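Appendix B. Raw example, untouched.
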Amino acid sequence: MFYDVDRPDVTLSDWQTFRNEFPSHLIEEVIDRSQLDLRANFLPLARGGAIASTTLLRKAGYRSGTRQSQCWRREMPGAFELPLNTQLTRGICVRKFGNLWMVRRWHGTPHIEALVFRFGSTPIFTRNCPSAKQLAWYCSQNGLPEGLCWVRA
């Protein structure tokens, strides 16, 4: 079985406990992988995903109906990116997975990293594109809230 520090193999019983006892200041809901539109090779050991809490989104500056001031560009349908430097070596992006949006970044390498909750490299999703963009922007400018990290996707 594949394992490394960024991709821990979480037992099913630990996952079930996490589904019921997650940090509510970061996570609103935990969803099993079978209910998500994820490729098998995308964070393959993640047993599911987590929806960002209202508290986390407020901390990131998201307010429903607020216009984004950054100049995001449409990469393809359901995907937007925002380069963070003129050399295009760093940037953030959001991508639609089913009805949810995921925050990702590139950071000096050709590999994309996903925003995850540390336990089980559980990817963080939002329910709409503007909230994903605001969370991505906040994390790129202010660092990550405790409990979240970037992992190669």
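End of appendix B.
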